[in-house]
Amino acid sequence: MTSQTTTPGLAEETASRLRARLVSGKLHPGERLSEARLAAELEVSRNTLREVFRLLTREGLLTHLPNRGMSVAVPSMGTILDIYRIRRLIEIPALAQAWPRHAAVGRMAQAVAEALQCRDRDDWLGVGSANMAFHAAIVDLTDSPRLAGFFAQITAELRLAFGLMDTPELLHAPFIEANRQIVDLLQQGQPQAASERLATYLDQSERVVMAAFARIDGQ
């Protein structure tokens, strides 16, 4: 690996790549990170990687422990509650005001199809990734790049919360059908009904994640 000067653009691009690993579920809450291994895998200098670590630590995705180095953050109960609060503020209005022929509706439908295929293969990590894509597409209905960028950070934190669960099937299985229903309602020209379905969905999802967190916290 050649030496390189750390630039804001390179650090941000590398942070985006590492954030994508978090969203895909390839990195788990509490997992320790090897600076040397990650620098080699991402093909960046260790100075650049340290700047990436600083960026993602500010986002709450990584944490530094004395004498232990960097590790993936473990979401707190307060973080989980706040994530769901933000999701309600962004996703529900996005659906309620959606244009049924928006290109993002097609991406939502594709995410549902991918989730069904992953379910049939018993690939629950893949189902989780398809679910993340589904909700990112909901935010894309707003046509706001700033909201989409902000939601990408929230999505990474949300995936960490999902990573606390020993049985991801219990979280994701019920929502494949709910996602399909939301798409159907949008395609039928019923955005308000779709948003109401999502509101119920988010309440249920929050309860499942919080129950899992409470069990872990009580151990």
If strands are numbered along the chain, what order do they take across the biggest sheet? 1-2
Number of domains: 2
Poorly predicted regions are 1-6
Straight-line distance between termini: 43 Å
* Net shape: globular
Features:
219 residues, mainly alpha, Arc Repressor Mutant, subunit A, Four Helix Bundle (Hemerythrin (Met), subunit A), 2 domains, two-stranded antiparallel ribbon, 9 helices, 2 strands, disordered N terminus
Would you give an account of this structure?
The protein has 2 domains: 65 residues, Orthogonal Bundle (Arc Repressor Mutant, subunit A); 141 residues, GntR ligand-binding domain-like (Four Helix Bundle (Hemerythrin (Met), subunit A)). The protein is 72% helix and 4% strand. Strands 1-2 form a two-stranded antiparallel sheet. It is globular and about 55 Å long.
In short:
Helix content is 72%, strand content 4%. The protein has 219 residues and is mainly alpha-helical.
Secondary-structure blueprint:
Blueprint: H1 8-23, H2 35-42, H3 46-58, E1 62-65, E2 69-72, H4 77-96, H5 103-120, H6 124-140, H7 145-162, H8 168-187, H9 191-217
Antiparallel strand pairs: 1-2
Helix pairs in contact: 1-3, 1-7, 2-3, 4-6, 4-7, 4-9, 5-6, 5-8, 6-7, 6-8, 8-9
